[in-house]
Design brief:
Layout (H helix, E strand, L loop, with lengths): L4 E2 L3 E2 L2 E4 L2 H29 L3 H25 L1 E5 L3 E4 L9 E3 L3 E9 L2 E8 L4 E5 L7 H15 L7
Antiparallel strand pairs: 1-2, 3-4, 4-5, 5-6, 7-8, 8-9
Helix pairs in contact: 1-2
């Protein structure tokens, strides 16, 4: 979701969430893990003589974990937030620097890392932030355009009309 203009030269933050294919994959993995847990609990009751109450309690816990995990994955996960001050990247393994001010960003490049299309924000001190664009629920071009807009405003650059 790209930021919107508000007032004079001020924008609302842009929040980018998980793309639907990634959400589906994560939910599939969660369901698989929970299915194995239910199978193991069932085997424990059948083979080891564990009381069936354990299976009932375990099943309720599995359902609660599934609902909670599904809610977090589908609703509340913002991977990248761009605002007037800088950016923040959450829950992206191997992202590097997770947060920085726009004034600390030297440049932005599009590249491929391990076969994945990524945007790399290079900081003045040599550190980097890597964002795989496949994870985001937007087109790579829209994300880069919004990122460049925030970066330009963060550095004080203005459009010439």
């Amino acid at each position: 979701m790209a930021g919107r203009e508000v007032g004079f030269n001020r924008r609302v933050p842009s929040d980018y969430r998980l793309s639907q294919p990634v959400v589906v994959r994560m939910m599939g993995a969660l369901l698989s893990v929970l299915g194995v847990v239910v199978l193991l609990m069932t085997l424990a009751v059948g083979l080891l003589g564990v009381p069936t109450a354990v299976l009932s309690i375990g099943f309720v816990l599995v359902v609660l974990l599934l609902l909670g995990g599904g809610f977090l994955v589908v609703r509340g996960v913002t991977l990248v937030r761009l605002d007037d001050a800088g950016y923040r990247v959450r829950l992206v393994r191997g992202a590097g620097v997770h947060q920085a001010r726009w004034t600390d960003v030297e440049d932005v490049v599009a590249t491929t890392v391990a076969g994945e299309r990524c945007v790399v924000l290079r900081l003045r001190d040599g550190r980097t932030t890597t964002v795989p664009v496949r994870l985001l629920a937007t087109s790579p071009d829209a994300f880069v355009k919004d990122l460049q807009g925030h970066l330009n405003r963060g550095h004080g650059y203005r459009r010439i009309n």
